[in-house]
What we know:
Elements: E1 3-4, H1 10-17, E2 22-23, H2 25-29, E3 36-41, H3 47-58, E4 65-70, H4 82-88, E5 89-90, E6 100-105, H5 121-134, E7 135-141, H6 143-153, E8 158-172, E9 186-196, H7 199-204, E10 208-214, E11 218-224, E12 229-232, H8 242-252, H9 278-294
Parallel strand pairs: 1-2, 1-4, 3-4, 3-6, 4-5, 6-7, 7-12
Antiparallel strand pairs: 8-9, 8-10, 10-11, 11-12
Helix pairs in contact: 1-3
Amino acid sequence: MPINIPEHxxxxxxxxxxxxxxxxxxxxxxxxxxxxxxxxxxxxxxKEKTELQLLRLLGNTPxxxxxxxxxxxxxxxxxxxxxxxxxxxxxxxxxxxxxFDGLIITGAPIEHLAFEDVQYWDELKEIMDWSKSxxxxxxxxxxGAQAALYHHFxxxxxxxSKKLSGVFRHTLTDPTVKLTRGFNDIFEAPHSxxxxxxxxxxxxxxDLQLLALSEDAGAFIVLSKDEKHIMITGxxxxxxxxxxxEYERDLQKGIDIEMPENYFPNNDPTKRPxxxxxxxxxxxxxxxxxxYVYQETPYEWE
Length: 302
């Protein structure tokens, strides 16, 4: 089934080129189908790239999905045009009286700040609290996952000695959990962050279950026991080239940064990296939409 996106969204043409089934708003409204309504709070600086990455995954299931993009009102994005935000995004004020089947909260490159020092932290807390009664399931990514662990479960992040960047092996802890159904016992996933969270604190919290972890990258997939919140500390949604683009960006800024680990073939940055996590990315998003959103959300919200 298709993904329903706003008319003229730039990512739409790229999705069509990739043979992702995209439906216009006009055609979607003519079908007698109850689509899933997914809200995406996009906190990433290069919003159009993140839009494409997430829409590609949401559009690859048998479910029809309506997508609404959300931007912060208390912080003005600097890496995307105001016209793009005005055309395709809304703010919390205009959706807070609605109900959504799913919510995705992305990462953000603000790990150097304490949560309380983030300009839009109060707004994000309001959204996260609102989601408890207005959203069926919430998927938190990278910094968004750390924010959720801190706000909902009292687990703070801690600084790493250097940036964790690369593709790392992860071990599945319980193959029977619906979210990771179909996963290999060992699988790869990319990470890109300066902070981490404590495995011990997660395992000691009765409201959380650690589903996947890595010797090198730490906790990776965390599920709340009520299955309301899913926290992914890495970036399964990344394209093959994304870590390389971040590496080049940091070098150009004069940042003393190491090459992403296990990423470039033979550690040669002139060689094209391969996507070795794509299948598990699609599995995770498909399982989330099916088991945690579609199977749990009411047909009609009261």
